[in-house]
Design goal:
2 domains, elongated, about 10% helix
Length: about 280
C-alpha cells in the first residue's frame, strides 16, 4: 500500500474583537467565528486540533452575578460585583444586611453574623463559597449567631476553560460523571487582576475531533465552576491549528468525498446544521 499523502495543516487566528457574532456583547465570553472557506476533512483522515496560544485580560471580578446572593430568612441580599479583601467584603455585607452585626476574625479568616433574633441562611444562596459556608445546605443560627464553616475565599477562579461546543472530542470531564466534554483546554490563571494572561502550548497537546466539516468555531470562556466568565467588555485572542492524520483505513482514489459518499457520512447533515446556526444568528 502506498504511503498516505501528507496534508498541510491550517492555523486559525481568532480575535473576539472581530467575532462574527457575540452572544453577550458586554461580557465578551461567547463568540462565533465563521469561516469564508470551511474546513473539509479529507477522506481516511482525522482532524486534530491544537490550541496553540491564548491571550486574555484578567478583567473578570471575583464576585460576579453567579456568586453574589445571600438568601436568608430576613431577605435576599446581593453583594455588589467587584474584587474584595476580607475587610472590604465585611464592609459591603454590613452595608446591605441591616439588622445584622458582622465581624471578621483575621486569625481564623472567618466571618460571624449575629442578630437580635434567630435567622437562617438558605442553601439557595450563591455566595456561600466566598463567605465560607458549606454550599447547598441551610445554616440555622445558634444563640442568634452564625460563624462561617470555612475560611473566606476570595481567590477567584483558578482556571479558564476554553470550550468549543460545536465540536466533538473524547476529552473527559469529572463534572459530567466522567462523560465527554467539548472543553479543549484549561489555562491556569497565574497573574493578578488587571494583567494579561498569556498561554502557549509548550507540550504540543492536541485533541482529535469527530467532525468532517467545520464552517465555524464557537468559543466560550468558563471559570472553574463552568460558568461563563464576564470579561467586562474586554477581548481575547485564540490561535488553533488543524492538522490531519491518516486513520489507517484503505486509501481511496480521491481524498475529497463524492456526493454519494458524503450522503453516507455526517457531512451533509453537518453542513445543514451549521447553516441553521448561521441563520439563527442573523448572518445568512
Amino acid at each position: 500500500m502506498s504511503n498516505p499523502p501528507k496534508i498541510q495543516s491550517q492555523e486559525i487566528y481568532l480575535d473576539s474583537q472581530y467575532a462574527s457574532a457575540t452572544i453577550n456583547t458586554s461580557k465578551k465570553n461567547d463568540c462565533y467565528f465563521f469561516f469564508a472557506v470551511p474546513v473539509i476533512v479529507p477522506q481516511n483522515y482525522d482532524v486534530v486540533m491544537k490550541v496553540e496560544n491564548f491571550v486574555c485580560p484578567i478583567s473578570f471580578f471575583v464576585v460576579n452575578d453567579t456568586n453574589n446572593t445571600l438568601v436568608t430568612s430576613t431577605g435576599t441580599y446581593t453583594i455588589s460585583e467587584g474584587n474584595y479583601n476580607a475587610l472590604s467584603l465585611k464592609t459591603e455585607l454590613s452595608s446591605k444586611m441591616t439588622g445584622y452585626t458582622i465581624t471578621y476574625d483575621s486569625n481564623t479568616n472567618k466571618l460571624t453574623f449575629s442578630s437580635n433574633s434567630s435567622f437562617t441562611f438558605f442553601g439557595l444562596s450563591t455566595c456561600f463559597r466566598i463567605i465560607g459556608f458549606e454550599e447547598d445546605e441551610d445554616h440555622v443560627s445558634s444563640a442568634n449567631a452564625l460563624t462561617s464553616d470555612f475560611v473566606v475565599n476570595l481567590a477567584g477562579t483558578s482556571l479558564i476553560y476554553i470550550d468549543i461546543p460545536n465540536i466533538t472530542t473524547r476529552n473527559i470531564l469529572s463534572k459530567n460523571n466522567g462523560g465527554f466534554t467539548t472543553i479543549v483546554k484549561s489555562v491556569v490563571c497565574d497573574v493578578p487582576y488587571g494583567s494579561i494572561l498569556t498561554y502557549t502550548n509548550a507540550t504540543g497537546s492536541s485533541v482529535v475531533l469527530g467532525e468532517k466539516y467545520i464552517s465555524y468555531i464557537q468559543v466560550r470562556l468558563l471559570d472553574d465552576d463552568y460558568n461563563l466568565l464576564d470579561l467586562n467588555g474586554q477581548y481575547f485572542t485564540l490561535s488553533v491549528i488543524f492538522s490531519y492524520e491518516y486513520n489507517g483505513l484503505p486509501l481511496l482514489d480521491s481524498l475529497i468525498p463524492t456526493e454519494n459518499e458524503a450522503k453516507g457520512s455526517n457531512l451533509l447533515e453537518s453542513i445543514t446544521n451549521q447553516n441553521k446556526v448561521k441563520k439563527s444568528l442573523g448572518l445568512s
